[in-house]
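Handout, section B. The chain below has 135 residues.
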Amino acid sequence: MSENNILEMSQTRTELGKIEIAPEVIEVIAGIAASEVEGVAQMRGNFAAGVAEKLGKKIHNKGVKVELTEDGVIIDVYCFMKFGVSIPAVAQKIQDNINQALLNMTALQAEEVNIHIVGIQFDNPKQNQEVEEDM
């Protein structure tokens, strides 16, 4: 690993030069792979990401943190689940999907893929309307 947080692909060194992958690229790959899993409502973002999305820009790395260590790549994913899904099953599917996408696109194996469930999203507007009418 180099000093400036760029992951150098030592096994893919060619006579043409070296190949480096920025941690932001791994964040985008993991974010897209996590969002594709059925049962994930949305990824956790910050205020700036929310404003950018309202303006029409798609933020693919929100809710993902990548840490490059001597042991390997550690990925932390922060997401909201849909109400009624099996959280352990969906979390396992997220881990599998991220590992597979990372392996296919970069030939890297993640040391850890940690899933953090930060909330549950209720998608039944009719139920929400009935609660408001009762009040």
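Note. The chain has one domain: 7-134. Compare this with the example in section A.
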